[in-house]
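Give me the fold.
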Amino acid sequence: MTGFHAQASYALPELAGFRAGTPLLVTDVAVLDPAGGTVTTHQDVLIEDGRVTKVGASLAADADVLDGAGSVAVPGLWDMHVHTFDETTLPTFLADGVTGLRHMGGAPIHEQWRSRLRAGDWAAPRMVFASPIVDGPRPSRPGSIAVADADGGRAAVAQCVADKAEFVKVYSQLPAVAYAAIAEACVAAGIPFAGHVPFEVPIATAARSGQRSIEHLDGLALGTSTDEAKIRRELSILDPSNPAVMFDRLSQLNHRAATTHDPVRLAELGQVFLDHDTWHVPTLAVLQAKATVGTPDFPLTPYLPDIEPMLRPAWERVGSWTPDDATKEREQAVFQHSRHLVRELHRAGIPLLAGTDTFVPGHSLHDELALLATAGLGPLDALRAATTSPARFLGVADRFGAIAPGFAADLVLLDANPLDDIANTRAIRSVILGGLIV
């Protein structure tokens, strides 16, 4: 394990402005502990100065009272892969019980958000902010930092550190030499890096280089394919100047990787991930959407008006596209293989995080939890992927991810137990952020 990973801890805002309020007593709730998988019924939770101070039966306190009878209290949920640049989406996340966000592509607006969070009087989810996307010399996403070589990679990291990014976001078209320089510079600077696995970089190399998390299962199907060398050569000649052609060819290559899977290679990679503390954020909701475009199962059609405004036009175009039958079958096969990979990663003990790529703010996280549960995690481990696991990943497990004395008072009260059915995370009665009922 790379040393700075074990020590990394994110300075999440304490929401100081909320602490002046009256104490809050949540009464008669069943408290769910994701770490232990236990539910303790008929508990009262006393919240003071933004933190839980007491949990027990029949507590007495001079406090405002929230009657929780019949509800199950779980820690606030985290979406660990978000792209949002519109402040109007943030209340929607909170309404869906998402009290924490990891932004996976920095933008100028995020510096304003960071300042407002530090001020402590803004009812918005807690947030962790990436650098701008660091990509190859012809980036595919606007606002990216273009990097062509090792010197450019080192300069990009220096810029990200100077701009106070909390981690560096790496992307698909980085040249291998630039990626290696970025990894070395991040380790030297003590700043984590996470994101895509570049086309030129084997996934095992990314893990050994210290990449903290891998998004979308990037590079995993390729790294477990018996045809990896040939597919990698074809990836090297993709032309980003024509995105439609590039993404169609990527679809074909992903399918070839999925249909040439070698479980022995997966087991070997799993050990590399464990040795280097490499986390995965599968974003199955994204992969499901790609696999169902042009079919009645496409999940986003009813929610297109609610998608992040900057991202909505692209998904509206996708939603109206009708791929041919061969493409539909190919994408379905890739999605089913992705579910298999998630199941095998989980069985091997490799840590997973719930993330959505945003899509529908808040709502998509519940979709992701359901997909993780049916992919083999079950309800408890799916819930952990949005509660205790984010706290561990961010190095704040002593303050987040549980409803216990000393922990941040971020709670979601549900009308049904998510351990019975993960869909019950949608049955939200109340959301509490830093002791404030939102």
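Residues 325-347 form the longest helix (23 residues).
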